[in-house]
Amino acid sequence: MMSGESPRPQMSRRALGGMCALVAIAVTWWCLSYTNTRSLIEDARKCRADNPRQAERLLRRALDQEPSVNLEAQAVLASVLLQQSDWDAAADLINDKLLNNAPTDALVELAAQANKVHRRQLAHRVLTAVSQRPGPQQRTALLQLIGSGEPGRTTYEMAPAALALAKLEPENPRWWWLSVEAVSAGGDPSELIDVLHTAIQQKLPPRDTTEFRHRLVDQTILLGDAEAARAAMSALESQRQVSPARLHIHRARLLRLEGHSRQALQELNRGLARFPNVPAKALRLRGIMQMDIGNLDSAVVDLKRAAQSLKNDTILHYKLAECYRRLGKPQLAAQHRRRFQELKKQSAPDRNGTAPPPGDKVRHGQ
């Protein structure tokens, strides 16, 4: 060694060997601990059907070994507690950390148990977390969220899952139709318009795209946006095999929106002449347009014909009550006013089922 140089510290072979031994012990301990925890979870799964108490004990042992990181054991334990009807204890375990980080299979197992014991809100919360994870379980979770509602009834609560499925499978018209119907069940017109615009941009069968364009015209008129309605009409007219009768009805509603009541009625009649059997909603619309220009007797005829098929239509009874009031027939007006109020109460939970405001000056598209 040259003078002035500092001697380099050297690790003795014995010290180096000691460090390697400590590392080996730590790795071995971790492997044994992990294996033991894994075994406890699997043993708990095996015995939970016949002996949920034993499964609970095994899972708590697994959590004692790794309390801060073993989210799989925590999820399975929550499922076992639900199995034993220990709702509060299970709820204490189900937090955002668990839902964001626990293994997907464990969360699916937890959601299934929650559904089995009729804890629908909890199952919905867990499935929502699973549905936000890309992977093979995402689609299944979204389908379960949609299926968790009332049988045979599309609700607004289905909209997020339906839209997520539509994004997963953008060329499948089924999910776009479900999205449109779900948003229609409770969303506002502007929200539905956004969904329709997105659906139209997809590579869907022509008949589906055309029908979505019809819906877009309807909704822009309902929203009172004449400029957007005319743009939607122009795009619709460029499509092939568009129903001329429906185009007449769209134009009539748009003319009414713009304040051209007599022209609107004339255009509507051109459309209705193309129908072998005039739809009840079209009769209702003509009755309302007859009211616009003061033809009250003709309005009553159309509205009463429509009422034969639309017995529970709030708008129809509201308009009949107004018609009879203006004709000086208070008893008939009161009869339809009562029916209107009954139907209004029944439809109150659904945002799209509420009655029109007095005068019907906002919802021109009805």
Please specify the SSE layout and strand pairing.
Layout: H1 13-47, H2 52-65, H3 71-83, H4 87-93, H5 96-101, H6 104-116, H7 120-131, H8 136-147, H9 159-168, H10 173-184, H11 189-200, H12 206-222, H13 226-237, H14 244-257, H15 261-272, H16 280-292, H17 296-307, H18 314-326, H19 330-346
Q: What is the ordering of alpha helices and beta strands?
A: HHHHHHHHHHHHHHHHHHH
Number of strands: 0
| Main sheet attributes: strand count, strand direction, barrel closure | none
In DSSP terms (H or I, runs of 4 or more residues), the helix count works out at: 19
What portion of residues is helical?
A: 55-70%
Which band does the percent of strand residues land in?
under 5%
The coarse overall form would be elongated
Flag low-confidence runs. Answer: 23-35, 350-366
- Given helix and strand content, the structural type is mainly alpha
Radius of gyration: 33 Å
Distance between the termini: 100 Å
Question: How much is the average pLDDT?
Answer: 85
Provide keyphrases for this structure.
366 residues; single chain; mainly alpha; 19 helices; disordered C terminus
Describe the model:
α1 packs antiparallel against α2. The longest helix has 35 residues, at 13-47. The relative contact order is 0.04. The N and C termini lie far apart (100 Å). Residues 23-35 and 350-366 have low confidence and may be disordered. The protein has 366 residues and is mainly alpha-helical. The radius of gyration is 33 Å and the shape is elongated. It is built from 19 helices and no strands.
